[in-house]
Amino acid sequence: MGLGLDLPPFIGQLVSFLILLGVLSHFGYRPVRRIMEERSARIRVSVERAEQARLEHERARTQAQQELADARLEAHTILVDAGAARDRLLEEARSEARQEAAEIVEDARARTLEERQAMVEELRRQFAEAAILAAESVVRETLDVERHRKLIDAVLDERLPLEEDQPRP
Prior knowledge:
Layout: H1 7-139, H2 145-159
Helix pairs in contact: 1-2
């Protein structure tokens, strides 16, 4: 032939190649293909697991963000409630303090009035005694003390009314 091919060795090599191809396809290709399919299946399972893990991670991250947002909202609510409670307690304390101060002032006024009345009574008694002593020294005789005291009290009641009877400015 003109191509430089020698036909009998070429046919021998072609038959050898076909036999080798048959043996390899029967004994080598099937096991290799089975191994490749198993590997492919393992890769597919690994990819599916990775996707499931990614989805699970995404779901967990979303849930964590939601819980964090809920916790922040709850913390804010607690702070607002605490502020309102603080304001309410302060107002109650102020109200109680005002009430106690008013009671103290009223008690002081009542005590002052009682002391004033006691002082007026004492002053009247001393004045009556002084008037009786003066009258005794003028008349130079002993007078009925009780009768004169009643007379002086009656005059004082007419002439010197107590200030509690008068309106306060």
